[in-house]
């Protein structure tokens, strides 16, 4: 009996994607990627540091390989990410004597960077995470105090979108963030996006990263984010989905069961139910949700193995350490 796949199960809803590295595109991983998914996102390769390590030098090799893989296999490709406070090299903000650059210089660099990267893959990347994580988790300001904000001011965000739109007018442009279901951050992100829409900034959608756990969020919290952002005329994508079996810091404080790092039957049961709930919710918002991407391929290796606790194994995905589908996979494809 041929087993169902994610991409077939969801063909009438949205593409199902996965974050990849250039090195991970061979062997059994590549087979799983091409058989289950119809979209990929480079996990790190297109970020400013990896792709633009020095002024006037781009490292195109990894990104080019990922683009070629998508094309050869008829997969969609999401670009990630053009402007982020993390993984941006120090040279970007300083001149040759180490002094911080002016607003004009930083804007010119941002424009050049976006023009070069988006321009190179024009027509091959259907959606870009243009600005990533610009809203802070705490405080009342809607703007994270990043170098981009400090040097340029709040309009660095709209400028980034304008540069990206100019470089590839048909690419779908996204604002991407995490913790989008916490009430206060949801509201701040909403205010930012509303402002951008009012200013006619070329933004098409919002990415809810979806770094969730077996405890949170609830369906109601997710739906509130989806419908609120949809009300601005924006598409919604889940861009970095994983469901950690370990409680987040604030969840630990909420008297969750003690967790010594080992995988328990209760974790598996909760994770299966959480994944079912998530995809039931996504299907309800057919039309608004235009993509769901997992952040890594299988439990064999995930960024959560080292975050937030170094060397604590996590099991956040639909495929186990041997690349076999977990019970959560079956809940997701059988509906
Ligand atoms: O490439 C170097 C390697 O040369 C070096 O030997 C090694 C030693 O630590 O580090 C390697 O770089 C690491 C890189 O991943 C590639 O593996 C970095 O240290 C590490 O910090 C980096 O982590 C990435 C993280 O973003 C950076 O903040 C994760 O892989 C990646 O999954 C994660 O992805 C982010 C999204 O882009 C945005 N949203 C949150 C998400 C999770 O943090």
TrEMBL record:
Tell me which InterPro entries the record gives: GH (IPR017853), GH10 (IPR044846), GH10_AS (IPR031158), GH10_dom (IPR001000)
**Which PROSITE patterns does the protein's record reference?**
GH10_1, GH10_2
The EC number(s) given in the record are 3.2.1.8
Gene Ontology MF annotations: endo-1,4-beta-xylanase activity
**Source organism, top-level taxon:** Bacteria
Active site feature: 240
Report which reactions are catalysed by this protein: Endohydrolysis of (1->4)-beta-D-xylosidic linkages in xylans
Can you tell me which residues the record assigns to a coiled coil? none
| All copies of domain GH10, residue ranges | 1-335
Return the Pfam families for the record.
Answer: Glyco_hydro_10
Task: List this protein's GO terms for biological process.
Answer: polysaccharide catabolic process
Keywords (alphabetical) are: Carbohydrate metabolism, Glycosidase, Hydrolase, Polysaccharide degradation
**Record-linked SUPFAM superfamilies:** (Trans)glycosidases
Instruction: Tell me its family.
Output: Belongs to the glycosyl hydrolase 10 (cellulase F) family.
PANTHER family xref list: ENDO-1,4-BETA-XYLANASE A (PTHR31490:SF90), GLYCOSYL HYDROLASE (PTHR31490)
Q: What is this protein called?
A: Beta-xylanase
